[in-house]
Amino acid sequence: MLSSSEIDEIVFQVLLSRMHGKKRYAQPVTANTMHRLLNQAQDILKKEPVMLELSADIAVVGDIHGNIDDLLRIFERLRYPPAMRYIFLGDYVDRGLYGTEVLMLLFALKVKYPENIFLLRGNHETENLSRYYGFYKEISGKYEEDVYMSIIDTFDYLPLCAIIGDRIFCVHGGISPLLKNVDDFAHMQKPHELSGCGIFTDMVWSDPGIDVAEYAPNERGCGYIYGPKALAKFLDDNGLDLLVRSHEMCSDGVAWPYADDEETVDRCLTVFSNSNYCYRGNSGAILHISSDLLVNVEVFPPLTEQDLKKRKVLLPYWLYDMIAKKEAEKKNAVKSTARSSKAKELVPLRVSENEGKYGNTVKDVPLRVAVPVNC
């Protein structure tokens, strides 16, 4: 079992790999440490049900797709756990270059603060997709096959959905004609590899569609297109007000799929947290659901190359003691002035204990929009 200091070291190594715009493709930690981290994460995730029931005052994060820099600025903006609670809606890997670092950081935080960060499963948390959409190639340049397979095993223990404050249903893709009663679903066992047809596949693959009344085949080849009537019935039958999902890129980071339908205009919200997805120039967004179920939307623009070169990674406050100890050890063991200067350069002096701005420029200040949810 990894000690608390070893978990902190994993987090630090991920942050260190992004300092001053440096791009490291090597292993942030050893394969042995990765296996131990994954085993510990599995032990925690095994105890979580297929459907989480969470209290409000929580941040909701959509697709990340290997964008470690967006993930870091989200944590820097809203603060790292345990200062803020998070639920992620899946799709941590593929498309981007740093799915390994994204998983490493999220699993380390899950082990360190299991009640402050929750990870749902997306359609890319499967062997079928991750082998062919970038993650397998990425991790093969850093680790052997056994680490990849251990990650695939860990995906099998991720929950599929969550209900926040008894009123907001969170899922990666959407609903299914097989998903009638959430209380019945809560007693189901988590699936292993998501393939073929069925309720679990539908929930990570389905999309909302305004031109469909209830359900229609999905052009993706998996899941369904669910219309306003289907969504309204599902929410009403289960005493829910809002469905929050991800799975689709949004130019502005968020979208209301049923904006043109009077009855369900504010009952489905898509959030996508990976900015500049596949170089499309889109904004990213995150949500914060307050204790009184007010949904705050924060939108942030893509990071430019200049932003990445100028930015300094902020450390969570709980890492500061470890960094101070490292600095003291380096000073005691310093062999030359040049080496001492280099060591100081690698360690930022800023600590992310309070909220800060995205990046370093005024344009990175997020837009806040308050959307009330009926109780």
Automatic annotation (TrEMBL):
Top-level division of the source organism's lineage: Eukaryota
InterPro entries, alphabetized: Calcineurin-like_PHP, Metallo-depent_PP-like, PP1_catalytic_subunit, Ser/Thr-sp_prot-phosphatase
Keywords attached to this entry: Hydrolase, Manganese, Metal-binding, Protein phosphatase
Serine/threonine specific protein phosphatases domain location: 120-125
GO molecular function, one term: protein serine/threonine phosphatase activity
Keyword Signal annotated: no
Gene Ontology CC, one term: nucleus
EC number in record: 3.1.3.16
Reaction(s) the record says it catalyses: O-phospho-L-threonyl-[protein] + H2O = L-threonyl-[protein] + phosphate; O-phospho-L-seryl-[protein] + H2O = L-seryl-[protein] + phosphate
Database matches in SMART domains: PP2Ac
Co-factor requirement: Mn(2+)
Stated family: Belongs to the PPP phosphatase family.
Name of this protein: Serine/threonine-protein phosphatase
Provenance organism: Tritrichomonas foetus
